[in-house]
Amino acid sequence: MCTGRIDPAFIIKAFSSGIDGVFIGGCWPGECHYPTAGNFHALGMVLLMEKLLKHIGVNPERLRLEWVSAAEGIRFADVMNDVVNKIKELGPIGKGEGIDGDRLRLQLKAIMNLLPYIKLVERERMNVPIDKEEAYKEFFNSEEADRLFRELIVDPLFISEIMLLLREKPLTVGEISMSLGLDSSEASRYLNRSSRQGLIRFDEGQRRFVSIQGERETASPVGSRG
Question: What residue spans define the domains of the chain?
Answer without folding.
Answer: 3-101+134-142
